[in-house]
Specification:
Aminopeptidase; eight-stranded mixed β-sheet; N-acetyltransferase; GNAT family N-acetyltransferase; acyltransferase; Acyl_CoA_acyltransferase
């Protein structure tokens, strides 16, 4: 596996490392509606220092821990609209998708487009056997994205995640490389 963050493109998006000058934009977007509430690890409030640390650490986290995070940018103006990630477990040939899209950019298919590109990268470039994801059971939008990109519903982990003092149910989705190859 290369230690360099990839640069991926889709018909409407560019997925690439964030630059230090994007910290304020990242901070503003990450503080938007439903971002922290629907994700496992984004703090609220999301401070400028948190954004700067995230950007500064992207390359090192990929190299050291297999966490591949890329900024999701509109192709027409390279404006940051979200973040997509793939947490790689090389020992098991598994990748776990994550991400979020700014409130103003939702319901336009950007999440599915970015996740599909990252899933393809995981299967094709990294040789992963399985790519999956999970979401809170109340997050119907994320569940819909997972199904749209070809992940299969595998079940519900009841009370599996403690979020803001509440044990949340997690819906689990995944696809195997053989399923991906037959899809494309």
């Amino acid at each position: 596996m290369s230690c360099q963050l990839p640069y991926l493109s889709t018909p409407r998006l560019l997925l690439h490392a964030l630059e230090p000058h994007q910290a304020e934009r990242l901070c503003a977007l990450a503080n938007g509606p439903k971002i922290a509430d629907n994700t496992a690890s984004i703090p609220s409030p999301y401070t400028l220092q948190t954004a700067q640390d995230f950007i500064e650490g992207m390359q090192e986290k990929f190299r050291a821990t297999g966490l591949l995070s890329l900024g999701m940018h509109r192709r027409d103006d390279d404006e940051l609209i979200g973040v997509v990630s793939l947490r790689i477990n090389a020992a098991h040939g598994y990748g776990h998708l994550g991400g979020w899209v700014a409130a103003s950019e939702r319901n336009q298919g950007f999440a599915a487009e970015a996740a599909t590109a990252l899933m393809a990268y995981g299967f094709e470039a990294l040789g992963l056997h399985r790519v999956g994801s999970q979401c809170f059971s109340r997050n119907k939008e994320s569940a819909r994205v997972m199904e749209k990109i070809g992940l299969h519903y595998e079940g519900c982990l009841r009370g599996a995640f403690l979020k803001n003092g509440v044990h949340e149910d997690m819906l689990v989705f995944a696809a195997l490389r053989s399923e991906w190859e037959h899809r494309v």
